[in-house]
């Protein structure tokens, strides 16, 4: 459990950090909850680690223009307990509360987690259901990527070399919205064997908007669009949940086969929908 | 003049907080990796990535040339040393020579091949990657049943077929039992390989002191004295030139009841480089290179009458040994055979063990060591029989228990159960859960389509291990009690407690016997230069054997104290009371400290009495002790997902007399946690090539606090006649009682779907598939 030798830098400004990341075999250290274990196991051996922890202002949470802006360095604990997040996008706060354990939530960050893109991480399900926008910057660019276009494959995102996640923007949820996150946690790792995040709006007893994000089931998190459409067309939640994961690749491992994962995604989609419906006004 | 002497309140039986805990909780305890010495070097071990391979060549030049590297050792350097010892012996046992470093072949992933020594552990680790080993990979076999199949790769080429030993034991007349049987139930039952996973991994610091011509070996071990003898033997050095010290030990569970290559290697290296050297095991090494537990495939056949009376039990036990024998590897399954009748009075048994080599790390003692497997087997079989006969699982147990008037009871496997009241804990547990009401609730749940289960297991176990004839290196224990000149009391125990709490329970015993405050008592252990020879802590023996030795040492000492007291009081005889010697005729007394001072100052001596107040006692137990108990688990299974929820966990354990109920509860909680681990989550899985695929804590699911049910722990107390304290031992009880109670509960929940048996761990997908199969 001893990493290879590496250099360490702790830039004091974003510009300095982006300058460093523009070249060389450098890896960003945010909360270190994934990078450090990988380095200890020598699965990762960057020449240099660039610690973002000394840069002020990367972890703020603000609400403006109908969006909640969450700085990439906000810890899971901050996201979980932020009054702004709880009030304006409670689905994300609830999802954050399921990540790892208290120690992990105190150290791990939103930006670090999504940039790492573990296929069993919790956040992606919620970010997809929330139609989040992810602002990424480099020394030469500043662009925004929709969550649906961000998670490309296991441990693979739309981030280009030199880019870092700067903030996540989430549309403020309407008070009429209902939400729910249902997760099957792996008993060893705590990661999601399957996690389903749901957001719905109901009007006159009818679902007029449904968003379903699924993590853990496949190589990357995905939107269950067919199920969303069925719900918006008035189908019963049971019927819609039954098509979640159709056409999507499913992972298989010692703990859960592909068939079982797909089954769990459907069961937990139905359960998350039931929770969301109970919360929708 | 009449003198009233009030009997002081005894501490025996009191819930007293552990003396050990403040230093553990505040982080001031010293563990192996806390040891730092001037000039200390660090070792990193190069290990095989293959489960089976020939070593064509090892090139250490690149590693040896790295900065900070002082030496690289291979089998060429250590080949003259002795082998890793196996203390167990069985007729016809094949014992492969277990070299400290692999010579020309590796036998499991993690097999040590070379050791790199550098000035710091980072440099050692980096250099280890530069050691080039040219392997020729060979076919491996990791599954014991596949290893027995025709044409399987031979783990050890000299023994094709992979059988290390066969062992047969029988009692009574098994053929007659089966011919008279009205019903026979059969089941294949596995007890999967488990990884003990002590919180603190293993570690060794060796410190060669040339001026003293001696080596001090610090090791996180359960058996310092046995380690001294065995490591001295490996190194060919005089035993009294080797000192073994155990710092604080962060969990063992049997995995540190062993002598591994690393202890001898570090002592050897320290002598070669003339510097202290430290090696601390990584978690990955702990998973791949420290012993695993269990690893059984058991084929049971149980014969009975239709009224539920059991007649006989047959067992074919396939033990996955791994590639080598560690200290007790082949002996562990023989413990399963001894316990196979459980608490039941049938007198006909037959068992055949096949010990099988596989290309895996060796199995050995893990909490319970053979008894959890046996208990799981018999308790599953009793439930399967009950289901077959449509009998209540409680009724069938009560019908077959050994009766209270039958003790000492001789089992068909040759044991003599010391004392028991087997129905008592079961009845107590059932009352606690209101069993009839639970069954009514279950009937209602089933009508609603819910899967609710009630599982019962009753267990017996062999503790206080054990009488020396049954042990490879003696089964006694030792204690020295020293009353210091100021009246403070120091206890040296040969048992080497490492978390069990004897610093507290032994102090309670001393305080009661001598009448001194507990705070005046210091219990010292785990240093072969300080403590007289001892055997160690394992097999729930620390208190039941070590405590008895302490008790007898105290009796000798009390007699001497009284002689000095009588002399000082000028009385013919005195009694010990409230920390004083009292002349009952006059009521005059002399304090303990005054007596101690007189014994050491020795201005006057009682007749035929030497100065000083020290007593040492080696105690040989006449028998094992046999604790027992009943665990009841109420579960509910999610029909859609296969998730299991433990609604209630009731444990009623009878471990004989209880010195400290707080510590006993702690032992039960920890034991049950590890039992739940086996029942629900843990499994060491090797793939077909012998790679451990549950090789990290992210894959291997240990029990965690948030996964634990509330454990309702209580006791019945049936004293043991084997030792003067009446105690039996409780370290392993929770683990032994747990897994069958859980599995019986879940199988009971699924029984309406036709499910009769499930092997552990009961992962949700396994349950889901059973439900799918049952519904199909």
Fold and architecture overview:
The complex is a heterodimer of chains A (281) and B (776). With 281 residues, chain A is of the alpha+beta class. Chain A folds into three domains: 7-54, Uridine Diphospho-n-acetylenolpyruvylglucosamine Reductase, domain 2 (2-Layer Sandwich), CATH 3.30.43.10; 61-171, Uridine Diphospho-n-acetylenolpyruvylglucosamine Reductase, domain 3, CATH 3.30.465.10; 179-279, Enolase-like, domain 1 (2-Layer Sandwich). Chain A is 33% helix and 27% strand. In chain A, strands 4-5-10-6-7 form a five-stranded antiparallel beta sheet. A four-stranded antiparallel beta sheet of chain A has the order 11-12-13-14. In chain A, a hairpin with a 6-residue loop joins strand 13 (206-215) and strand 14 (222-223). In chain A, helix 5 packs antiparallel against helix 8 (123-129). Chain A starts with 6 loop residues before the first strand and ends with a helix. The model of chain A has no long low-confidence stretch (mean pLDDT 96). Chain B contains 20 helices and 28 strands. In chain B, helix 11 (371-389) runs parallel beside helix 19, helix 15 (502-514) packs parallel to helix 16 and helix 16 packs across helix 17 (592-601). Chain B has 776 residues and is α+β, with helices and mostly antiparallel strands. Chain B starts with 20 loop residues before the first helix and ends with a helix. Classes of the chains: A alpha+beta (281), B alpha+beta (776). At the A-B interface, helix 12 of A face helix 4 and helix 20 of B.
